[in-house]
Amino acid sequence: MVDTGSFAAASRELGYTPSAVSQQIAKLEQTLDLRLFDRAGRSIHATEAALYLRARSAELVGLLSQVERDAGRLAAGQAGRIRIGSFRSADAQLLSRSVAQFLVRRRGVEVDLHEGEPWDLLPQVVSGDIDVAIAFRYEVASPPWSSDVQVIPLLREPLTVIGSPSHRLASHASVELDELEHEAWAGNDTSTLAHACLMNTTAKAGFRPDIAFHSNNFDALFGLVRNKLAVAMVPGLTLAGRTDVARLNVTDLPYREVAAVVRMGRPDPLAQAAIDALSSVARELAEENGWELLVDA
């Protein structure tokens, strides 16, 4: 109406009759209690009120268009925020590589990272405080996965006993675990699943380890081992790229299963994109290290 200057011209552009357009304008003026157009014969002239409302309406249309575009990006997993929880020994390899892959086409997505053990992270997944958690369970001494969450298995990494490069068993092709009965050990804190796994595994070999050092910091454990103060049993993810310790060829050690965990139901687009990135990196890690891949083909 403002652009055309007449009911007839506006009705042709809109596909309505002139009387229908005139009635709608009259109803709008009555509703707003404003005169929007001055009538002069067959011509109309927009009032200052109409010009002002037209400008603000254009802003609203632009805003609605932007909201529609943003909604499309959210639906496609291209915008928004995702909260990912992980445990420390997954950070350097699985987490960092997955986040890098996730962000390749999602530079506008905000990623919040949270660190913790599975028993800390899984309740936060259930409550909705974390969108995706990377969690683990040991073959021995771990409870089954919670039925309150959806678990997407990624890989199984072997546990490895490490010693200093000059350890007496470093060059042996095969080592029985009970050959390390009289060694000093470095292990995780007694409250952890890793500690329970070590105690369970050594008990099956017929001995109780002398754990001289406790730490949940794997760099500290590696330092103790490197300096000939202890041996340790560590998961495969902690060994990537390390040449400062010897991998003792101990037979029949258990594994650690790593999985992505989300809330029950269909994951939202960002969570699904994170799962896809984790699955892709799990494939790479399994291929690089000869680990068992659990991701569906």
Q: Any chance you could write out the topology, listing elements then pairs?
A:
Elements: H1 7-14, H2 18-32, E1 37-40, E2 43-46, H3 48-75, E3 80-86, H4 88-102, E4 109-115, H5 118-127, E5 132-138, E6 149-163, E7 184-187, H6 193-204, E8 210-214, H7 218-226, E9 232-235, E10 246-248, E11 255-263, H8 269-289, E12 292-293
Parallel strand pairs: 3-4, 3-5, 7-8
Antiparallel strand pairs: 1-2, 5-11, 6-9, 6-10, 6-11, 6-12
Helix pairs in contact: 1-2, 4-8
InterPro entries: LysR_HTH_N, LysR_subst-bd, WH-like_DNA-bd_sf, WH_DNA-bd_sf
Protein name: LysR-family transcriptional regulator
Keywords: DNA-binding, Transcription, Transcription regulation
How far is the first residue's CA from the last residue's CA? 60 Å
Anisotropy-based shape: rod-shaped
Number of helices: 8
Average pLDDT, to the nearest integer? 89
Q: Any idea of the CATH topology of the largest domain?
A: D-Maltodextrin-Binding Protein, domain 2
Please indicate the count of domains: 3
Strand content: 15-25%
Q: What gyration radius follows from the Cα positions, in whole Å?
A: 32 Å
Task: Give a quick account of the main beta sheet: strands, pairing sense, barrel closure.
Answer: 8 strands, mixed
Helix content: 25-40%
CATH H level of the largest domain: which superfamily?
Periplasmic binding protein-like II
Order of helices and strands: HHEEHEHEHEEEHEHEEEHE
Low-confidence stretches: none
| Sheet/helix structural class | alpha/beta
- How many strands? 12
Question: What's the architecture of the largest domain, going by CATH?
Answer: 3-Layer(aba) Sandwich
